[in-house]
UniProtKB/TrEMBL annotation:
Protein name from the UniProt record: ethanolamine-phosphate cytidylyltransferase
Pfam families with a match to the protein in the record: CTP_transf_like (PF01467)
Keyword Nucleotidyltransferase part of the UniProt annotation: yes
Highest taxon of the lineage: Eukaryota
A GO molecular function held by the record: ethanolamine-phosphate cytidylyltransferase activity
Coiled coil (residue ranges): 350-379
Cytidyltransferase-like domain span: 25-149, 217-307
BP GO terms, sorted: phosphatidylethanolamine biosynthetic process
EC number: 2.7.7.14
EC class (word): transferase
CDD domains: CCT (cd02174), ECT (cd02173)
Family: Belongs to the cytidylyltransferase family.
Amino acid sequence: MLRNGAAGGGGAAAGGGGHRPVRVWCDGCYDMVHYGHSNQLRQARAMGDYLIVGVHTDEEIAKHKGPPVFTQEERYKMVQAIKWVDEIAPGAPYVTTLETLDKYSCDFCVHGDDITLTIDGKDTYEEVKTSGRYRECKRTQGVSTTDLVGRMLLMTKAHHSNIDEDLDYRKHTDNFGKGPKGHSPWTGVSQFLQTSQKIIQFASGKEPEPGDTIIYVAGAFDLFHVGHVDFLEKVHRLAEKPYIIVGLHFDQEVNRYKGKNYPIMNIHERTLSVLACRYVSEVVIGAPYAVTADLLDHFRVTLVCHGMTEVVPDKDGSDPYEEPKRRGIFQLVDSGSNLTTDLIVQRIIKNRLEFEARNQKKEAKELAVLEAMRRLEEEKH
């Protein structure tokens, strides 16, 4: 169990004035955790004082949806790293029951305004909805696991450029999240639009305090994953009062040193993904590739860290960490994880057909529910 380490957001009276803290329950697969998941948990946390997140096992997910990309251990760690989560409940049942809410002393359950179905097409939240212990939050537009998987399966840069989308990409993503009989609004692909409000909601807003050790790390942090979490957790442990600033490189810069169709997520998406991590205090959006004297002085950086991945030279062939090395403040940190964005993409490609089948099956169930809802509405009129 981890207490919420950042950005407050308790909505109800936080245990003050004799009120019992409001305990909130969320659950899900949390496979390929992205900023849409984080935003759901942020909204849920704001509805109460203590957020418990139930995460399903690999076995449960395989039974109802198909194979998960990440193992349950990886998924537990990812959810625990989100700063609005107070506690995780490993091995939560796929169908949310009153028994589960009572077991964890939760007042109600929160889910997005999409629908989650069992293998036989039943709403997994039916019981808690009927009993009035269900709340809804807004689904984050412009991101879905389906979309991210689609981006990985196609070697195109259309997903992070301002040019018109590649027709092959649009055609593929349409096929990926759409069966032969139509399109579900819950398993589709859409464009994410960044706003200042969204950044404010995700940011901690905390300035460094006297005695803080200001640590700077830089990179792409693409498809923010458990390897990144392991690295940032290790960096966080280097000081008693760490204040970690993450410098995110612009998309064009990432593409220069990563090649192919990287980054999978654009700069706006990567910003929110990193801000949601409990170990991160601040993000520099579009940080220079070379860690300069100006940057170090501006942020009063005490320590600069880099993982065990290769450091690609700057455009002029120089070492981007030359200045922090000269100052004697550069440190390599071994996260102990060998997971990289490349490896995740390889996992997806290896299971491509299974993932395509999974999404088409999921969408077929959703369309059946939509049709049933439409018929009910017609009968009322």
